[in-house]
Request: fold
Amino acid sequence: MNPHPTQSPYAPIQDYLSNVSRFKIIESTLREGEQFANAFFDTETKIKIARALDDFGVDYIELTSPCASEQSRLDCEAICKLGLKAKILTHVRCTMSDARVAVETGVDGVDVVIGTSSYLREHSHGKDMTYIKNAAIEVIEFVKSKGLEIRFSSEDSFRSDLVDLLSIYSAVDKVGVNRVGIADTVGCASPRQVYDLVRTLRGVVSCDIETHFHDDTGCSIANAFCALEAGATHVDTSVIGIGERNGITPLGGLMARMIVQDRDYVINKYKLHKLKEIEDMVAEAVEINVPFNNPITGFCAFTHKAGIHAKAILNNPSTYEIINPADFGMSRYVHFASRLTGWNAIKSRVEQLGLEMTDDQVKLVTAKIKALADVRPIAIDDADSIIRTFHLNLHSKDEKPLLPNMTAAEKKLFEKKERELIGVKEKRSLEEAVDKEAEVPISKKTRTETVS
Ligand SMILES: [Zn+2]
Reply:
């Protein structure tokens, strides 16, 4: 059973278009990711990444064009020979010369792409739509004749003329392309635009629909999700989202989004507990840190700090967690070494440390930790040693200082903060008493008031 049920008053209504429960991943760390500013993968690294992605369970692995360089061609052949479960694709321009090189590498499929926006038609390749259509059909028929899968994608789809797009997709669908691709090459699309375009395209072609979203405006995961809801079948990802500029839909972020949608599908299809390992491997290879706000593996993705959150989390994790960290082999961490801590978090820590204290004692040591956290930043070790020393002091005559090496100024500040905290507490209990009084019947209250 899912320990983190996701039912909400806004639960999506399943419609016949949606593929959120049967999507496939085209993992492009070794193609799009190679276009990341810091990426210089050698053969050994590429093989390591390909094996890890295959083990994770991605459906396809997309590789840099064998026409990019002699080394790219050799690496492509080497990865095809690994005998992975994932299908291997390579990504080439929509020309016969590129297609001829691609089919000789041993790949399972070829992804071809051509710019269809007016920008690209004018400033990049300078070809008109009739030329593009004829070139596409020739390439598709050639690749199919070799028994391989073929995808045709436009580039910069969201700034291409809709009539042009639909007419070319319809033409390639008729000659039996396996997938058409929608690519937000510049990252300009919004989720609603994605939904509209994919849904329209779904009505025009019968083949699969692959989608590719850049993250320039932070919409890459949302756009991928909306595309699936509108009937897209495949999503391009890369590990941590690395790619051209600030990259594309990240594999981990997509997993986070999709597990909330359909936990059974995601958990049975992908080895989620391998995610952190893969992200660390790629982060190391491209010399970056995994961002703090990364879904799932960001260092604080499952850290709860505020006292009120900690209390609820300790009672029932789904209060403030939509994803169960254990599904990804991660663990929850209740941050107790801060001024925002609460006594429930400290109580749980006291129990973890195997110490026995009454609730009143826990509340007292909590006040001390909060006061000390105002004096100087305290780490987990500090908080643990405060708890231990406090516990020791309860059972011994001479009192040890809770924080070692406190200066006179720090001691003074600590006493002041502790007084303030206890003051706040007294004020609160006074208010509670007043509130209680307010609950007594009017006649009695009036009398009390008269007396006082
Ligand atoms: Zn891209």
